């Protein structure tokens, strides 16, 4: 047996991070429309050449498993293969990381602006050279029927607000601020509801919504030096402050819902049944855009959400340097991929032949 080793240092990479939403991946998987198939093939080739990465997320996992279809698992496998095993942290982890960073700034009276740090969104370096294999674990899924019902109930509750929204004369920025205040109130209410529930039966803690844990986390700060009443007051003040409103996922999602308010005030979605149907995927759409989008160089979303993100009143993802792409403009999409292709250096090309000789020899 030969004991001689050769070590070849590989060049450092800076991959483009692209979020492909369920709309894109489902169309590419079904292979019924050539434009999606060709786009997916280009993405796979550029990912193989270590120029880009398309991580999958908890939203992909949930949406795929809520899909009642015999090809459900095949679609999920396709999504993970397209991502080459790369994935985002869980949505709640990213939200909590941003929340804690903002709360630290609030406590220390520092700037309310939150910098985007990839470590908040990924467990490991997303820019490293891909391994030959990755470990694939089956996701831990909740009660799918309960999730479907909860999704339906949430949309029904949202549409129920539209008659009151239609009467509003508020400005766009006032609507953004109200959305942020409403979300902050909701987090505190869910925490207090959890406390009341746990006081009756501690086992209820295991079934509490994840949103209730955010306030609980913030209350741990200075627990040895501050009484609980003062900590509750401080957290409540934080949840209604500009610090909270400037958290990336809060800022982007509130702008998207302010766009929806504007549309309703302008006469859209007057038929409740049609509104429920058209907005059925809204909460997952806004989550992938607001939670994962700021960590990406580009995000491919459906035509409707692209229109919302491009609304002139909303800064949306543009403030984080994220491109929004959709099936409305394939030329722009392929021009973007062309620009990524141009990032391949001679050093990367040589290294590809060493690392993946069966593909690039």
How does this structure look, described?
The chain has 361 residues and is mainly alpha-helical. It has 2 domains: 13-88 and 296-361, no CATH class; 90-112 and 168-278, no CATH class. It is built from 18 helices and 4 strands. The chain is globular, with a radius of gyration of 22 Å.
Number of separate strands: 4
Number of helices: 18
Number of domains: 2
* Largest sheet strand order: 2-1-3-4
What proportion of the residues is helical, as a percent range?
55-70%
What pattern of helices and strands is seen along the backbone? EHHEHHHHHHHHHHHHEHEHHH
Keywords:
mainly alpha, four-stranded parallel β-sheet, single chain
Strand and helix layout:
Blueprint: E1 16-20, H1 22-30, H2 34-48, E2 52-53, H3 58-66, H4 72-82, H5 91-107, H6 144-159, H7 162-165, H8 172-200, H9 210-219, H10 228-239, H11 242-245, H12 248-265, H13 272-278, H14 282-292, E3 298-300, H15 303-309, E4 323-325, H16 330-341, H17 346-355, H18 357-360
Helix pairs in contact: 1-2, 2-16, 3-4, 5-9, 8-9, 8-12, 12-14
Question: How would you summarize what this structure contains?
Answer:
With 361 residues, this protein is mostly helical. It is 57% helix and 4% strand. Helix 2 runs parallel beside helix 16 (330-341) and helix 8 crosses helix 9 (210-219).
